[in-house]
Amino acid sequence: MRSLTQSTFVFRSEHEADTDKLGTLLSTYLQPGTVLTLDGDLGAGKTRFSQGFARAMGISEHVNSPTFTIIKEYEGAGLPFYHMDMYRISQEEADELGLEDYFYGAGVTLIEWSSLIEDLLPPDRLRITITQEADQTRVFHLTPYGSPYLGWCEQMKENGYLHDGTDN
């Protein structure tokens, strides 16, 4: 049984280069079947993070939000990248897309607006929620579900990139 309390790690981004750095850090851990979920208000930086993350995966194509296409597929340097946006789709419609093929497939899946399909998400994933502060700083809250993702976050914390909210 899963713990009812999840550890959450924090990454602060004061510039787009910081956001790209988080994408680069995460890209070093990727393996087939990696699932990252991404939530935040409109304008929080979800697509900007997705672009930096894709570049870190070796994708040279322009990556934009798949709001109307729902799913875009890219070929990364080592793994395929599946970029999804659930903003305009109901959970029932999403259930008919065969998302499990992506979640448990050979690539890396990043889902914007994932909270809209919460019941369809795999149990093991890295949840990323972005909040924005008044000074335009973005705060990335990383909540790992499953031991691989917890290990990633703990290692990034040990290396000084993340903190757990109790650190200053």
TrEMBL record:
Do the record's keywords include Cell cycle? Answer: no
What coarse category fits the chief subcellular location reported for this protein?
cytoplasm
Provide the protein name. Answer: tRNA threonylcarbamoyladenosine biosynthesis protein TsaE
Give a yes or no for keyword Chloroplast in this entry: no
Which Pfam families does the UniProt record give?
TsaE
Q: Which SUPFAM superfamilies match?
A: P-loop containing nucleoside triphosphate hydrolases
Where found, per UniProt?
A: Cytoplasm
> Which keywords describe this protein according to UniProt?
ATP-binding, Cytoplasm, Magnesium, Metal-binding, Nucleotide-binding, tRNA processing
Tell me which species this is from.
Paenibacillus qinlingensis
Top-level taxon in the UniProt lineage: Bacteria
Protein family (similarity comment): Belongs to the TsaE family.
